[in-house]
Every structure is written in structure tokens, then in C-alpha cells.
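Note to self: keep these together.
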Amino acid sequence: MRNAAKRSDDIEPDQPVADSLALRRLQVLVFALTWLSYASYYLTRKNLSVVKSRLHETMQISTMALGAIETLYLASYALGQFASGALGDRIGARKLLALGMIGSAAATFAFGASSTVLPFALAFVVNGVMQSTGWSGNVKAMQPFFSSQHRGRIMGLWTTNYQAGGLCATAVATFLLTHYGWRAAFFGPALWVVAVGLLVALFLVQRPEDRGLPPIEPAPVKVTSHQPDAAPTLLTLLRLPALWTLGLAYFGLKLIRYSLLFWLPFYLKQFLHYSEAQAGYLSLPFEIGGIVGSIVIGWLSDRYFRHSRLKITVPTILLLGVSLISYQRLGGSGLWVNAALLSCVGFLLFGPDSLLSGTMSQDIGGRAATGRVAGIINGMGSVGAVFSSLIVAKVSETYGWSALFYGFCAVTVLTAALLLVSALLIERPRASPVR
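Structure:
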């Protein structure tokens, strides 16, 4: 047992066995709680995409109104990212997540209790602000417990939370919609998210030192050598070119991802003419492929690209463009062909997405600024998501769905170019760690 403890990559060789076991228990606890937390956020996020067709048909909510509601949600989510990242660095991940989860549940319950467009929109705006606490808060909570040596594979496994969360949220919302009505698809998930928020508030440990253990490693913040030896402010970080190129690249990825997350069931039912239940369940292979992609890309980044993780994302995203065109052209060939192609799209989209928004935020931000860096990258990316619903609604109605998918392909080319520039900026000799 002593030799096994000494082989650990996350502890000093001379640490006692008791500390090694205590650290492992904390790592399991934090991993499990934060994974469950962010997966659960999707239960109060994905339900609108599933019930959208029902609201359109039974409550006469127009396509443009539905797009406007989601755009307002995404705008509040994007703006909230910047504030939530800074707030999490100030008050700690535990308080931020508990507040966000309970607030999101309350807003979701209010949506389910409403019947007209204005209350729908107000509830989802509040939900967007509350949802913005989830990513930066959970990424910050994970950072102190795992070393950079294994961060790619750990975060690759951990970021399956939003694929699994999206998958489960879609399945739960579809089941509740088809068996109990659209309001149940909001009430049930809200209760679950409150329960998980209370678990986080009671049991999440924020760093090893809180249990008398030494830090895993002094994770630096990669900024210019002119930065003073202090935790960088949000404005200081916003002056770094690499964060802007990363944020712009994530803009493209989230525009595509949220377009598919929010509109795929609608596309499957209205354009490919699947039943309501089939359209809900057939969107699941997208998240299943994403789970595999996150794990595989994270492992490859540790194994072959640890000092230049972004380089693996460039060819992957170019292949994503090919897969999107293939799906548009062949997705109507049958259920199994559709599912297989959606799995490929999910694999090639979620793998780079999780690496960029999770692992890179921790590598760049370190312990002092992971929340801020995650908030900046995810916040800038979420601006892309803001436009996704209106773009999908406008382009699909005006030019058709084929034009939309060709537009997505063009976005992947620009995103790959931005990530290549980001890799070069991060590797510049003048960049140095500030502790």
C-alpha cells in the first residue's frame, strides 16, 4: 500500500499513507459531486427544446417567439458567465453552485407554471443568469484536486457531464412530455436540481487544504512576463490575445452546439417527419457520441499533446465540418443512418469543446483565476449561442435547412483557424507563468 501511495502522481512522494487515502477520497467526492452538479444543470436547460414543438402546436407560440425566448435566455447566460467566473473566484465554488442550482430550479418551475410568451421569456432570462454559475463554478471546484499531468484525461472523463446531462435531460423531458404533459417536463427536473444543489452546499470541499492536506501543485496563470506577481483581474485577463482567440473559437463551437441542442428535435419532427417521441429520443446519439469524444480527445491530449493540447482540436473540427454536411445530405436515409451520423457529429464536436472549455481553462487560469478564465472563454463562446436560435429560425425559414448546415461547415473552418492561432500564441516564448 505504501508503494502504491508513492506512485501517485498527485501527491508528494514522502506524504503519509493516510494523507494519500484521504486525498483519494476527496478526489472521488469532488469529482462525483461536481459531475452530478453540472449534469443536473441540463435538466433545467434542455426541457424547452423538447417541448418546443408542443408549445408551437397547442399554445400557438410562433417559431420566431420560441427563437426569441431562447435568444434572451442565451444572452443572459452569456453575460452571466463573466460575472459568475469572477464571483466564484471571490466567494468560492460551493456557495456559487448552491445559489445557481436553487435559483435555476425556481425559474424553471415558474416557466412550467406560465402560459403566455412574456412570463415564459422572463422565467428563462432568470434561468440563464442562474445557469451561468454552473460551468465556471464546477471547473473551479475541480482544479485544485488534480495535477496538470493527468488533467486532459481527468477532465475528458469529467466533461462527459454535459453530454450525459443533455442525454438524460432529453430522455426525462421526452418521457414527462409524452406521459404527463409539457408542464411536468419543467416541474420534475426543478425538484431534482434543488436536491442536488443542497448536496453541493452540504458536502463539496473546495480545496485539499480545507481537510489539512497539502496542495496538489502550484498551478500557474499563463500571462505575459510583464504581469505583476498577483492574481490577475478580469480586465487584465481580457487584455490577453490568446484568451480572445480562444473565446472567438469557442463562439463558433457553441453556435453549432446550441443550434443542435435546441433545434435538433424540432428539425427531426418538422423536416424529417419523425414522430414527437422519435424526434426526442433520436437526438440522443448526438450526446452519446459526445461522451465518447470527450474521453478520447482528453486522453489523446495527455498522451501526445500535453504541452500543446489545442493542436489536436484543429483536424478534429475540420472533420466536424465534413460530418455536418454528410448528416444534412444523408440523414434522411433512415433511422440507423441518422443515428450513426449524429454520433459522429457529437464525437467531433464535444471532444474539442470539452478540451477548450474545461482543461484549457484550468491550464491557463491555475488556482487563482480558473473561474475567471472559464467565465471568459465560456462567456465569449456563449455569445455564439445567443445568436444560434435566431440564426436557425431565420435561415431555415428563408433559405432552408441545407443552407444552414453549409453555414455550419464554414464556421468550422474559421474555428479551426482561430484555434491554430491560439496554440501559437500560448506557445510564444514571452509567455511565462505567474504564481
